[in-house]
């Protein structure tokens, strides 16, 4: 049974994006299917146990999809946006016709919009690593950890037998509900999430599929074109169990559909009349196996947004129906390896109206040519180098890195708080920039008993520098955000470089 799933973060959620660096632990921007599948398995073990009669169905039949930010948009690789901004435009016809994949439109550079456009609120916190053997602080292991903010809502789908949900979830009106603990640092106030399962009507699924099928691109000479878009990472292996980037209908699709033999005969009969092409991006995906307490074997994946264009020449109506029936089945089941963990989700060409341009792509100030952009970056780099030299070694690198990890550093730096009397009258206004708030919150911690005046002065100086940058690029809010983020990136890089040089000097 297919379910619409809503995951709401009741506490901050930290899911390792990659192997942790020494001083910065960064989080994923979405919840992988394998992560919340493992969290669901924990409550199954606690409430039912793996000797339960339904345990086999839970393990083998349940499919947990990746959960992305509510209202996030998936951009197939054939959507591009101009450098100057504006709406994303589809170039699917060029892929279907086999023409050269354009990188310019009317003499303007085009950027591909591939994958999910989502920007959740990210929190940053300081921590100290504890030795599991000594149960004491590890010397020099102060780190910054980013996490998805409390209250963030994610949406996804899942294929889970209803009997499995009845066993471990609470039934409320028209939906099931349970509480999961997702990600790491669960014993330190992270990871609690409310999960709601609401059944999807089969008639709605059928109607949506038929609508998308009717929008498939037309092609002359009795050629039927199928465009499959990856909604989650794909792990595909060829007949020799080696990674491949092409969907082979005989290997990846025919074995999992009901009319398996009929599909194999159809593909073999087509021979050279079937043409397969893939457009997109690949990556190496790592993971962590909680049961073994060890890293998973790295896998080669095709990233979300990757498009697989297949052309079938000279096919009849019955054969087209066979193809569409197979696609409808693989949309539910997934293709490739580790589909139970959210990998392998594909969808027949998404509706074009679902693709929206993100606010970050809009530029009210008009186009910025490359020469002007280079000059702006040179000015920002010069300011960052001057500021870094003046503040060298006065604030830990982890705090600069945490500032760079913020989703909106300009807003954090320029936020305002008011101190009031008990009767509500404003006594005075204080500008509390990010570094000052961090320093004040650390004042009572065991490793820092007071706030050095020099650090408060640095924070105020940084705020003044940001104000100057805002004044210099005041003609566009998007330009302000870009300039501040670029400046902070240069500043952190320069602080790290100066730190490394000072270490070499001591040697």
Protein described:
- By secondary structure, the chain is of the alpha+beta class.
- Helix content is 34%, strand content 24%.
- It has 14 helices and 26 strands.
- Helix 9 (370-390) packs across helix 14 (477-506) and helix 10 (397-405) packs antiparallel against helix 14.
- The radius of gyration is 26 Å and the shape is globular.
- It starts with a strand and ends with a helix.
- The model is unreliable at 352-370, 414-434 and 442-452 (pLDDT under 50).
Q: Globular, elongated, flat, extended or rod-shaped: what is the shape?
A: globular
The largest sheet is: 7 strands, antiparallel
Low-confidence stretches: 352-370, 414-434, 442-452
Structural class: alpha+beta
The portion of residues assigned to helices is: 25-40%
How much of the polypeptide forms β-strand, as a percent range?
15-25%
Quickly list its features.
507 residues; alpha+beta; 7-stranded antiparallel sheet; 4-stranded antiparallel sheet; 14 helices; 34% helix; globular
Sum this structure up briefly.
With 507 residues, this protein is of the alpha+beta class.
